[in-house]
Structure formats: C-alpha cells, structure tokens
Amino acid sequence: MLRQLTVPGYFSVQPYDIYNYSSMAAQFTGALHEGFIYPRWLPLNFWGYGSPTFILYSPLAYYLVAFFDLFCGSMISSMNLAKFIAFFLAGSGIFFLVKE
Questions:
Q1: What domain count does the chain have?
Q2: What is the span of the domain harbouring residue 32?
C-alpha cells in the first residue's frame, strides 16, 4: 500500500484495464457536474460510440471519486484517496472479522 500512496501518479500498479477505469471515473464525475444524478451512458467509451456502463458496474466507487474530486480538484488524487479508503475499510473489516 505504501508504494501505491507514495508514487506521484495513479498508475503505480498497472493492470490491463486501469485506463478504462480512470476514463470511466472522469466521465462519471463530468456527468455529475452536468447535473445527472445517476449517469447511465458514458459517451466516450468504445472509441466515441459510448456504452451503458453503470448498468453493469457498481457506481459507488465512482461516487466516492467524484466526492473527493470536489475537494481535491485532481482526478488522480481523488482516485488515490478512494483507493486508500477501500483498502482501509477492507483491512479493517477483515481485522474485526478475524478478531471475533
């Protein structure tokens, strides 16, 4: 986790679809800024043809990124914060589960 938080960019670990997720987060945040409460269509996916992405993917992580983007002003920083919160909650959850 330390490497993920100390590298200056979001792409410290590069799975094959990280660029897709960062593009979806940026489009989701942009749609929220335009006034859509639950954006169902991302127009820039699949080479400009668009896709109904959030019918298949859970939008909670993207809402969290958009919330942090209000305060950070940087998509990379807000994605790193969302990633840290997710890892922290997962680690805390497994700690309390094993503690019982």
A1: 1
A2: 2-99
> Residue 88 pLDDT more than 70?
yes
pTM score, whole prediction: 0.74
Half-sphere exposure of 78 (CA within 13 A, CB side): 20
Closest by alpha carbon to 65, among 24, 96, 98, 36? 24
What pLDDT, in 10s, does the model give residues 57-74?
788 889 999 999 989 888
Q: Is 45 left (phi over 0), alpha (psi -120 to 50) or beta?
A: beta
| H runs (alpha helix) in 2-74 | 2-6, 18-34, 45-48, 60-72
Longest dimension (CA), the chain: 50
Give, as one character, the DSSP assignment of residue 34. Answer: H
DSSP bridge partners of 42: 51
